[in-house]
Design brief:
The chain contains five helices and no strands. The protein is mainly α and 70 residues long. The protein has one domain: 434 Repressor (Amino-terminal Domain), CATH 1.10.260.40. Helix 1 packs across helix 5. The radius of gyration is 11 Å and the shape is globular. The mean pLDDT is 92.
């Protein structure tokens, strides 16, 4: 599963930046970058906050990650 790529795709679709998302979910910009490049794994709580900020269901974010991980 490639959640980082899924987050980047969702950000691009919404024309939003990693900095914007980091601010929305209350994490640092470097931490968000680490998530987007799969250097860190987000907690379920953070995934939930990310999906809320991106206005998508958590299941859709995970499915997108599975699609990009193949």
């Amino acid at each position: 599963m490639d959640l980082g790529e899924a987050i980047l795709v969702m950000l691009a679709r919404r024309k939003k930046s990693q900095t914007w998302l980091a601010n929305e979910v209350s994490v640092s910009r470097p931490y968000m970058s680490s998530l987007c490049h799969n250097n860190r794994e987000p907690s379920w709580s953070l995934l939930n906050r990310i999906s809320t900020a991106l206005d998508c269901k958590l299941s859709k974010l995970i499915a997108e990650g599975e699609q990009h991980g193949q």
